[in-house]
Amino acid sequence: MQLETYISDLLYRYECVTIPEFGTFLTQRASAAIDDATNTFYPPKKTVSFNEQIQKNDGLLAHYIADVEKIPFEVANEKIAKRVNSIKSYLTQGETITFKNIGDITFNSEGKILFEPAYSLNYLTDSFGLSQLVSPTVSREVYKTEVEAIEKVIPLTVTPEKRKARPYFKYAAVALIALTVGGLVSSKYYVEQIEQHNQLAQEKAFQQLDAKIEQATFNLNPLPAITLNVTKQSGNYHVVAGAFRVEDNCESIISELKAQGFNARTIGANKYGLHEVVYGSYETAEEALIILRDVRKNQNEDAWLLVKDLDAVTE
Fold it and tell me: What domains lie within the chain, and their CATH numbers?
């Protein structure tokens, strides 16, 4: 039994997944981060940890295995217990147990569990499609030395003695103030003329539009009624096939999935501007996870589960 596969499926949806009589995998949301030393940008993610103190069976893992494999709940618990005994046996022999896409578990010298998380998979569904980004170093030129050298050659300071020796500075300042005031007055007048012109043009356009609408109202011919058979999808659990920057690309993917028998559709753009295409939407998490498991096993290992309340979308 590939226990790590079932655990990995559940980590997308839940913050903790317990292996009875062994321990619990915990997830915690981590914000986006920047490594100043390497200029690397990391997207938001879920960090995974392990706590061997939490071993009480909450039934989550066993229920999921029972639903996927179509076996009784008690048989699923027996399979988990058998797998746990095998894991403990390998650990006591000094071997490392690898949970794919989750991390490695070993025993230390004191017989305590050490967990080293793997970072190959981001369990935060909001960050789907985002990866780390390395930015090139920004080079900044410093001009302070050049400016100091220029000031030594061309003094920029006007001292009181220089103002007395050059009285035309005073008249130049007066002229500058006069030009500024005159420019402001003429600019204000010009802006008022433009606004008045735009207002008249807008009123004229509205009059022409009203006339055309009135004329079109009397020339409309009644159209035959059309009856549409509309099928609505509902449910807050969506199995996502992919997200696309260009919305037109969604149509071909939806056509392919419908040809394979899925009730595929697009559920709009997420907060990153990516248009999401789903295999289908489902009322319960159990139903959606069963479909997700089958899709990832047979068709698309990158498919993921989105839990989101959406308005019903007609197809």
Answer: 3-134 (no CATH), 232-314 (3.30.70.1070)
